Amino acid sequence: MSGPRNTDPEHLHELLHVAWGVIANAGHGHGGWDHEHPEWVNAAERWREDYHAALGLDRDEVRSVEEIAEQQARNKAEAAAGLAGALAASE
């Protein structure tokens, strides 16, 4: 372990937020959670539920967050496709 232990609540909250980012994006680029081991997906879903409950989010709010993330992924894919098309057309 490097450095002194940081038990500041804000620091711990940030660590949990970063952990959720890593878990939520697992499999990004190769099909998402559908391509992960079922036991891993089950554990990730449990972690997500507990994390969101700790934040005070209800099911509807969580679903909305997930829908936003899915829309953002679609937007990125469309933008990348548009850029690729524009580059191809300019050649």
How does this structure look, described?
This protein is mostly helical and 91 residues long. Helix content is 71%, strand content 0%. It has three helices and no strands. The protein has helices at residues 9-24, 38-54, 59-90. The chain is extended and about 55 Å long. The chain starts with 8 loop residues before the first helix and ends with a helix. The mean pLDDT is 81.
Number of strands: 0
Number of helices, counting only DSSP H or I runs of 4 residues or more: 3
Question: What is the residue-mean pLDDT, rounded to a whole number?
Answer: 81
Alpha-carbon distance between the two ends:
53 Å
Write the H/E string, N to C.
Answer: HHH
Largest sheet: none
* Helix/sheet category: mainly alpha
β-strand percent reads: under 5%
Alpha-carbon Rg, integer: 18 Å
Fraction of residues in helix: over 70%
The geometry reads as extended
Q: Enumerate the spans where pLDDT stays under 50 for 5 or more consecutive residues.
A: none
Topology:
Blueprint (H helix, E strand, L loop, with lengths): L8 H16 L13 H17 L4 H32 L1
Helix pairs in contact: 1-2
